[in-house]
Amino acid sequence: MVRTDSPRGPAVTGLPALYRPAQVAVILDCSEWWVKEQARKKRIPFAWIGGSYRFTEQHITEIIRLFEVEATNRDRTPTVVAAIPRQRRSQGEGTVIPLKGRTPPRVRAATLRSAA
After folding, report:
1. Which end of the chain is more exposed for a tag (fewer CB within 10 A), N or C?
2. DSSP reduced 3-state for 109
3. Taking the CA of residue 24 as centre, how many other CA atoms within 13 Å lie in the half-sphere pointing to its CB?
4. pTM for this one?
């Protein structure tokens, strides 16, 4: 296999081209951050070479396949799911404690200065 074009420098014979996250982001029309985050969470295939993410053409093809969304069949009748009724608490059950907000620090400091 002879490559005439390569994402980095001159063509190398017999080796797959390796793409950096920024190059993959351009190909996929997304952010470099997204590519790195998906790789970090191991949601997409990648190679870890030299302490950084690298992607082959097969990796990029697999990424596209992983995030592909297939069309739904609109002719199918929708499935109706019965709603489960929520359980309500009775009025006498438990005690209700009203919440009280904290006094802002600047107001506390002002009351301390005025009291002194």
Report:
1. C
2. helix
3. 29
4. 0.53
pLDDT tens string 101-113:
999 999 989 888 8
CA 32 to CA 22: how far, in whole Å?
5
At 11 the three-state DSSP class reads coil
CB 21 within 8 A of CB 53: yes
The SS3 of residue 24 is: helix
Backbone angles phi and psi of 54, in degrees to 5: -135, 150
Tell me: the pLDDT tens digits for 44-97?
999 999 999 999 999 999 999 999 988 877 666 666 666 667 666 666 566 788
With vertex at residue 61, the alpha carbon angle to CA 57 and CA 67, rounded to the nearest 5 degrees, is: 145
- Reduced to 3 DSSP states, what percent helix, strand and coil does the chain have, rounded to the nearest 5? 35, 5, 60
